User: Fold these one by one.
Assistant:
Number 1:
Amino acid sequence: MGSKKSCKESSYFMKKVFMKLRSEPQTVILFVIGIFISLFVLYPFLVLLLKSLMNEGSISLDVYIRILKDQESYKAMGNTIYVSLGVTLLTSLFGGTLAWLVTRTDYVYKEAIKKLVFVTFMIPSYVIAISWIEFFGRNGYWNRILRNIFSIYEYKFIPYSLEAVILVMSIHLYPLVFMAIANALEKTDPSLEDAAVMSGASRLKAVITITLPLSMPSFIAIGLLVFSRTMANFGVAAVLALPVGKEVLTTRIYSGLTNLDLQLSIAISVILVIFSGIVFFVNNALMRKRRFTTMTANSQNAKLIPLGKWNNIIAVFVILFQSITTIIPLIVIVISSFLKRWGLTVTLDHLTLNNYIVLLFENQLTIKAFKNSIFYGCIGATIAAGVGGLVSYISNKTDLRVRKLVEFIVTWPMAFPNIVLAVAATLAWMHPPFKLYGTPWIIVVTYITLFLPIIIKNVSGLLQNQDPFIEKAGRMCGASSIRVFKDITLPMIMPGLRAGWILTFLIALREIPISLLLYSPGTETIGVMLFGLKSNSYGMEMTSTLAVVIIVLTIGGHILLKKLKGAKMEVYENDSGNNKRAI
């Protein structure tokens, strides 16, 4: 009797739960998403953390104590901070100066700056590192110029160093600073500068004493982002620092894995997550405070500082800078991609299209890598777009208690360097019941974790700017919550989903650390091939060929992305028709 009663009570309880879920579809969606993020986001990190505390089956801090006594780990930490600070300072100088020229002066070649900055950011950092070696290496173009033109035969420059990492990463990341600071300067109320000028200050002094302090939160926030991205970078440090025995935390993790020192790699991964997490939280806190900065919504433009006779002098320096950072690296990579063999003199007899023919149509390994990257990128971006869109909707359009916690957990991987995501995935999916290691799906699952925060950031802005009365009107007409989402909300956020999909897909085409640590024979990606081609029989010429293909795909994808953003800016206007929504 007791068991029958218990069964009836359980059946009644399950029926009640089912009916409630049916009547509240948002709860059902949240429940499913909760399972999803628990499995794919929380679980790998918890496994990583627990593994770092386990030693022969018991909880122990031995590995952390070992790191504290390990001089090489201290050096790697010091090198990481040194490189990250150096890149932050240089990018602030480069990007801030160009942003000031474009927004606050009458410099004549502003559009050229914008276009070249865009192209610079589209070149993957690893490709810039390859170009650096091809130009400054012992058999590189600079040595040939010195030898053939200036008759200088003694070449002592070594292209491998931490300083080289700083320069290459600064070239890659200064466009981030440029875009952020230019945006902040354009939004700062120009009437404040005018008031200072009317009080007797020069225009330059008004900018220094008023505009720059108001833009300081943007400087600090973007500086923290640059610091974090530099700390998380693996490819540039691996190619420019490891050959001379200099390690940063990311390459220290990789070295530990290649030397089968798994515990060391796990512990350093946790330390790197803590460092990145602190920067992530500080950056978010500063971004929230930025809303108190004095801004203007009017269309008044700031009065530009006349450069006068300095215009041409500054133009020479800007052209020289952008030639070094963008034009020369592109020329070096493109020329090298057409050489029959790296190291040959650049003559018509030594140029060929065969590299591209072999890469795209004959070499089965690279063809397979392209197919894999496209497949993994499509699957990962599509799933991330679906889940990320739902998480954004729940966070911004519902009153569920845990909505912000769900969004926080899903966006938390933004604080993880890619190589740490790979280590966590290796530990989480190595053994049953979730054995994905050695299959393509471990790469796809890790890509989804990487892509989710990007999708959410693209969609959340659209949802926050959406007029809530549109959905209320739909419900007043008798539509259900699902029908309102399908017919009203989804079409309005679709531009953000499309943009996020394209952006994440492009990341899959150029990503290296995740694929490098998780691939198995037959699951190689473009990133794996890019990292490995120069070290095998194909040489630098084939690496350059693959790099050119990646650059073309990346620039093409971002041009499409900009067109999509331009289209949606024309669609979503407020009722007055004056101010277009900020997407």
Note: The domain at 81-336 is CATH 1.10.3720.10 (MetI-like fold).
Number 2:
Amino acid sequence: MLVGYFGLSPFERDLLLLCAGTELDSRMADLCALCQGDPLRRTPTFGLALAVLPEAHWSALTPDGPLRYWRLIEVGPGDFLTTSPLRIDERILHYLAGTPHLDERLRGVVVPVHASAELSPCHRDISERISRVWSKALPEQSPPLIQLCGKDRQTIRAVVVQSCRANGLGLFRLAAADIPGSTVERTALIRLTERESLLSAATLLVEWDDTVEPDRLHPSRFFIHNFRNMLLVSTREPLSFPERISVRFSIASPSASEQREVWVQVLGPLASRLNGHIDRIVSHFRMNGSAIRAAGNEILQALDSAPGDRESANDPLATNLWEICRTQSRPQFNNLARRIPATAHWDDLVLPEPQKQTLRELVASVRQQARVYEEWGFAERSPRGLGITALFHGPSGTGKTMGAEVLANELRLDLYHIDLSTVVSKYIGETEKNLRQVFDAAEQGGLILLFDEADALFGKRSEVKDSHDRYANIEVSYLLQRMEAYRGLAILTTNNKSALDPAFLRRIRFVIQFPFPDASQRAEIWKRIFPGRTPVRDLNERKLARLNVAGGNIRNIALNAAFLAADQDRPVTMGDIRQAAQSEYLKIEKPLSAAETRDWL
């Protein structure tokens, strides 16, 4: 096999076997020492091979000859090439001995891919088309480069694994970011990876991610251009590789109908008892086949461990399956966002009734996306603008974040706070890249995105005076496109609605004002602010409502008053609240008037 793989001549083959023989049989080493007249020279040399092997030729040991080009033989130190010791490469020796393994020099960089999943019909079709491309490649030419474009890396791997298995091939993957910048190291990696793909009868998948810029001079392009064997490249967006003949395939996430089909296959008879809950899951969570099977198997195992639940009401089953999907789909944001535990309920939110009614309408819109968009055909009429975006505006402390928590709790969806300090970058293009990562991750997880103080990110586009203004406007335009395409719920909060770009406001479906609470609303907040287990004594909500502060400040005052009372080992009193209020007013640089605390004691 090695002769055919690497084009060895008879002399090169015999020289390789001579080096292998001395490693595997000590008698061969003794013969080498005898022939060379030195008991210490037990390894073969090129001079020995030229003297004893037939059809010898000097070109067998040139740097471009297959023995050294493919690093089948290593030339040891010596004064002359003909007398330097020759040794077979360890990976080749193990191959000849019938114990193949991944070359140690490739470990941690080139990774074998074994796992696969049952593919959806559209992905099976792409897998078969890849096989046809390989079958039509001419033996004397390098196979065409296959580029696979898509966001779901796991699905891309599954498609490639299926194509490889259909052709009796294995698969290795290599991250483009791991390709070394040094020309010497990069060339060595190409040689060793090409050699490994031949020895293992495998192809290579280079995974190009967002950390690698699409620079024409990037080391990844050099690698792709010079790699001669079967090669695939996965990219998020299409890239141009003019140096090679290439074929491009787009691998989209499974459609809603394909996801539904997988759910039915996994759950079996149980699926018919969920009464439309699968449609809700498909609408909110964009899960690939592997994730669906993992979630389905988890719920089935849970039912097997408690058989009585299998015949119980559907609601507990649907609830458990929803929570499993929620956990399975939880993405990684790489410090660009943090998850906020949603603990607030409707009763915790003090708002005028019109605002509460709008929030309920927002909940209904999220819940009924599948029915309205798919069953009722709105997605077919206009595929754009299907996301649900809400703007919460009002002064600080009026409950905007709490409102988002209430929605997340009601909808049983994860709420993620987008950290603008890590998303917004002074470097050109970085903000756009960060936002792409946020939206791509969120689309898979059925998330609620909370852009706090959104005017810092969604502000008005400026007049173009220099390149920085132009790129800032490009970022805003990109945001407009992504928010219009995002199928989840995005909530923007701001203290200054007028600072937002009007183009954003036109695309926001729900605009809800969180007003500064009046006296009656402040009294209602005070009535609910202390947990039921907190000991209180002689609190008067009507008098407390004279404190002219928002709900966020009321919470701070109540919490500090509780600490003061706990330190004295007694219930919370009006005096504790007055002392805590004085500290809060100092913090916000506002005078506490005598009228606000009149008749408290």
Note: The mean pLDDT is 86.
